[in-house]
Design a protein that fits this description.
mainly alpha, three-stranded antiparallel beta sheet, 11 helices, 3 strands
């Protein structure tokens, strides 16, 4: 049975802060979290900190070992496959539903978001981390717009809340080399083209390819950051 967590507004803020830091790798896989330090940082007692850590443990983002310590979990790619299947199947359905009702104004709004992605690709002075954070933000905005236009944003929100460790994986894929991320942008562009052309078969195939594309370059990330992954 899934554990239920009831958090006050202040505790929810702490949870969201740590969740975001783990997803964006500001708190890196394998890094230790200390209750005392978190309590001092957020100016609260250890009790709410423990509640937050229990929620993050349920999210599979930290591991709490009695008498040993609390650590940010390393990334287990075997955990990714199930949610990737759910996400790929769901998004394909969302795109096909959207295709039936999409308007020229909707297409224009999606193309504007693509401009932001392209501009990020051209910002060569950004550090790897800055680039990944910015592109991830625009990537999320693009997909949220698609689900919102299809009237399914609440479903995407539910998926993200149910599998927060998948969001960390998605962010990690933006640490691949620039060519791989450029390919992701090209897939997004083609997706909008196919929505406009009403090409159902090609759109369905592209959606599946897109959702699994992160795996293609993940080995490069593993080589660059071997300590992030479960061996």
């Amino acid at each position: 049975m899934t554990a239920l967590f009831f958090m006050t507004k202040d505790i929810e803020t702490i949870y969201k802060t740590l969740l975001n830091e783990i997803i964006l790798l500001k708190l890196k896989p394998g890094e230790r979290l200390k209750e005392e330090e978190l309590s001092t940082r957020f100016k609260v007692s250890r009790t709410p900190i423990r509640d937050v850590l229990k929620k993050l443990e349920a999210d599979k983002l930290i591991e709490i070992h009695s008498q040993v310590g609390t650590y940010v979990t390393k990334i287990d790619l075997s955990d990714i496959n199930d949610i990737m299947f759910v996400r790929a199947s769901s998004e394909a359905s969302v795109l096909l539903d959207l295709m039936k009702s999409i308007t020229p104004g909707d297409i224009a709004s999606l193309r504007l978001l693509l401009v932001h992605q392209k501009e990020t690709l051209l910002e060569h002075e950004l550090s790897d981390e800055e680039f990944a954070i910015r592109f991830h933000s625009f990537d999320n905005e693009f997909h949220e717009r698609i689900w919102n236009l299809a009237g399914k944003l609440s479903t995407l929100t539910l998926l993200n809340r149910s599998y927060p460790y998948f969001e960390r994986y998605r962010f990690l894929t933006n640490l691949r080399d620039e060519k791989e991320v450029e390919n992701l942008y090209e897939i997004h562009s083609k997706m909008v083209d196919l929505l406009e052309k009403q090409d159902e078969n090609a759109l369905r195939a592209l959606s599946v390819t897109h959702n699994y594309s992160g795996l293609h370059g993940i080995k490069k990330v593993e080589e660059r950051h071997p300590d992030y992954f479960v061996k």
